[in-house]
Design goal:
Immunoglobulin-like; disordered C terminus; six-stranded mixed sheet; 56 strands; repeat
Amino acid sequence: DFGRSSELAFVVEPSDDIAVQEQPLILYCQVEGIQPITITWRKNGVMIVDSENAFVLANGSLYVSRFQRVRGDGSSDEGEYDCMAQNHYGLVVSRKAKIQAATMSDFHIHPQNAVVEEGGVARFQCQIHGLPEPVILWHKNSMPVNTDNERYTLLPKGVLQITGLRAEDSGIFHCVATNIANVKFSREARLTVSGSHSTVYKDPMILVGPENLTLTVHQTAVLECIATGNPRPIVSWSRLDGRPIGVEGIQVLGTGNLMISDLTVQHSGIYVCAANKPGTRVRRTAQGSLVVQAPAEFVQHPQSISRPVGTTAIFTCVAQGEPPPQITWLRNGQILETSDHIKLKNNNSTLSIYGINQADEAIYQCLAENSAGSTQASARLTVLWADGLPSPPQGVRAETVSATTIQVSWEKPLQNTKEIIGYVLHIRKAADPIEMEYQEAVSKSTFQQLVTDLEPSTSYSFYIKAYTSRGASKASEVTVVSTLGEVPAMPSLFIKVINSTTVQATWEPSIKLGQHEGFKLYYRKVHLSQYTGPVLLASNVTAYNITHLDASVVYEVKLLAYNQHGDGNSTVRFVSLRETVERTVLNPPCDCMKDEQNNKTSTTGIIIGIHIGVTCIIFCILFLMFGYRGRLLMCKNVQEQLSTPQIPRSQRSVTGLVLNGATRRDRDDRDLNGKQLDMNELERLFPASPSQEQQEKGITSAHSLSASHDETQISTLPLDEFSIIEEQPDPLPKDPHGSSPAALSPDHGPANEG
């Protein structure tokens, strides 16, 4: 075995073949690996026992002395054969080889007599089925057709095309089909070329268009297209998806047949044949689909690995093909069955083995298969096991502590405990797959672990491994225990006062409530010890009205959720109805039914309301405009009548305007009511202040006073007598007694005169 691979693998695998009846058949199989290697064969999954008819040669190949499609006992040598090789490390299986008997049927399409005018196109066809595909040749007048003549085109599917017919093309034609099984002749057909070449115009017409084909990569496709017309049409090809056909491996046979050699998957598509009248846009089309299949092949092979006991082994096998291949895994030649610790993912392309042990040591194979073919690849799993490792931990026990906590305890292994550096506790939900397992490390002197953050009412499985620097022990026995049930959480409670005798309790349901659980509601007056309740409510209820309450006292409302494990913590709220009663006295309740009826306004009412509102806005604008004009007029009249020293026009302040405006209004009131308004009262109503802030307030007051004047007074003011001028105020003349004339005004200072 020196220089040979230690892995058990195939060097030569059996391939698909077509066998000749009553002839010997050899299926080849060659394996490499560590000897001794035993090779056996299977047909359709059944072991082949050496016999006179079939036996295994010394090199591992299978020899069939006389291949028979049907034997006397009804059995057949046709079928799927595979080769199995086994040594000390495991067993591998080869790809399946499909073996069929060579056959040939009778012709199911024979050539037909044809009469065609000179210059036209003649087409003969014959079809026959056989394995392998028969080769069809044509004879004219019992002699092979001269293929050197460019006007004669022979297509692989048994078609003969003759273009530009001449009188010498007339004759008797037949075809000959040949393969390793037989040779057969078709019936004869006569071709008659009549008359001379016609000059009458004829539209282009496609006699035969391309047919749908399904082939395998590296084969050759011939898409037929034969057209007639006068003048002779030009045949062109395109793809329906608009992609270019390309030039590599592309050839035109005869006047318009498309041949594609060395097919690839990219050649798949719908091909369109067009017959075009020269120099015009007149054309006729026909189309056919080409499907190119590719047998399965590996993009990534699985790799042999070595892993310690208790760890995880992962094999990856990625294959491609058209159609996409199906992947199957074998373990020592047998279909691999998944379990808690053997999982297949990613469309079977990833094999994961969790917590491996010595029983998992084997050869694992990946089989990729589709309708175009199959292939296989293998890899070996070696489980590392060191001598002197600890035995499994003993006496594993698990006890439930609470709804979220379990305590696990164990005893040290019985053997090889000196090198232990720690323990690993393996934890997972009993219902979860093994890949959801997680671990917690524990020191070597600790023999118990409190596992927290678990889910209530859930079963968990636990096992322990002891670790040394050289590896881990085997797993201990698995123990399963469930956490306790948990009462629901506190619900969120809100209290809303409906009226003087009713409150509404609303809440959000607890997410931990079960199907047959609910709520309990209690309430009481705070000075009493006895609760009213419980009021039992279903789990889907989220509100409850408490009625017939006393508005003069404070109430305590308590809500809790319950389930089969008991009552949860309660949420308490306090509520008083006294404020509601007081508001009701100050603001008597409305007649809701009446208001509701009043609110049901018609469309006509809405329109009328809009018109009224717009009218009011217009009147307000006009009122403000004329009020401003009236204020200016009153300022002029009042200045003339006041007995106080006059202030020059340029020194009149805005505040003065306010004063004069008020004086005019007060004089009018005096005339009407018989009351006197002296200057002291004016000063009391409008106190003088030198601050700029009060001056600004005086301006605001002037606007508001002027806006309220009598409409008749405003209408008498001619608009063209006034203008708006901003003047710089002159220094006011001082009073001989030391006071300023501005003292008569509530405010003094510069003013803008209108």
